[in-house]
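Intended use. Records like the one below are meant for learning the mapping from a protein sequence to its folded structure. Do not use them to infer anything beyond what is encoded.
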Amino acid sequence: MTRRALIAGNWKMNMLRADGEALAAALASGFAAGAAADLLVCPPATLIAPVATKLSGCAVAVGGQDCHMNESGAHTGDIAAAMIKDLGAGYVIVGHSERRADHGESDETVKAKAAAALAAGLTPIICVGETEAQRDAGEAETVVGNQIRGSVPEAAAEDTIVIAYEPVWAIGTGRTPTIDDIAAMHAHIRQVAGGVLGGADKLRLLYGGSVKPGNAVEILALEDVDGALVGGASLKAEDFLAIAAAAA
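Structure written out for the chain above:
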């Protein structure tokens, strides 16, 4: 099974409108429609609409960074999946380690958000990953496996969701697991997800731990790595496009 690579950029809480539009324009002009990978940017909610406008008609997709589990209601400050879709997005990140840590999101919460995304016609990128303490204790595969079982909604299919593995201790630190560690974890994720989904040959698995142009080729060449969830490097068009080119 050949899975098309997905390179997703998580802009996190960065950039105002002018900067976001400028970055989107640079990506639109620098990314070819015939590229070997799909390119996705997930700006802050305030920038989804203007970025989607800048990217209209080009091959770069747009997503959100989070959504609420409910369709509407008294949830001040939150944004529903349908609202993200309405702004021109096709994807949404759910369960990012920063949401799990900063906002206490449980697997049950992530599962509900992923289900809401699917119901709204979005592709959820479901994030899983272990802390350094959990890895040092030999619990990494158990933790990640349990997160997958608890975070993937019943309505999901292998071609309607994306799973991103982010070793929490490697995000933004410049550290990365060894290539063997990454390969082993992604193989484990595909096995567990296959049991949950009834198959995982079509499921795209992204690696999300300090991916940079310098390490992208080696990581993206791994059999079970189908792309990357990129943080800091996605804020620079040159670096982000270089990572996408590494997926060829």
